[in-house]
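[step 3/7] inverse_fold.run input=structure_tokens len=144
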């Protein structure tokens, strides 16, 4: 357990959004500890990207936070069936850009004792979805 007595198990809800696919994109994450307390939230604007690149960017963002938090056991929840099935080795990764992001994610995952990845319905991922869209909204508003 850490100094706050909250352990080293975390869940991360991740999402990516792209308006136009490819289009303006964002990633959103919510990290929750084993006591269902929100430990971190993040929303990042990604520029122009596809939805799948945005989903992987959300995953990598969450993994980087979890490494920084010295997590040991993590559970990733995503509403991207493609991402979940690729990470669970049920689907192969054929797109070159996704291969690069997939390998970066796998390298980050090696830093944890245990990693589980689950596909969940979009309705169970609304908070991360809202953050991904908020990132786009913040960056795409006209100035003035």
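[step 3/7] decode complete -> sequence:
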């Amino acid at each position: 357990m850490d100094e706050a007595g909250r352990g080293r198990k975390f869940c991360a809800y991740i999402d990516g959004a792209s308006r136009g696919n490819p289009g303006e994109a964002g990633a959103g994450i919510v990290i929750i500890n084993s006591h269902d307390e929100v430990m971190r939230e993040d929303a990042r604007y990604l520029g122009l990207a596809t939805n799948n690149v945005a989903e992987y960017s959300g995953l990598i963002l969450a993994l980087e936070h979890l490494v920084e938090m010295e997590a040991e056991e993590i559970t990733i929840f995503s509403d991207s069936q493609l991402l979940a099935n690729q990470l669970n080795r049920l689907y192969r990764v054929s797109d070159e850009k996704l291969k690069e992001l997939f390998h970066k994610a796998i390298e980050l995952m090696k830093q944890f004792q245990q990693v589980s990845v689950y596909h969940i319905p979009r309705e169970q991922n609304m908070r991360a979805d809202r953050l991904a869209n908020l990132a786009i909204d913040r960056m795409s508003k006209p100035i003035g």
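[step 4/7] annotate
Residues 9-137 form a domain with the Nucleotidyltransferase; domain 5 fold (CATH 3.30.420.10).
The beta strands are 9-19, 23-33, 38-49, 73-78, 114-119.
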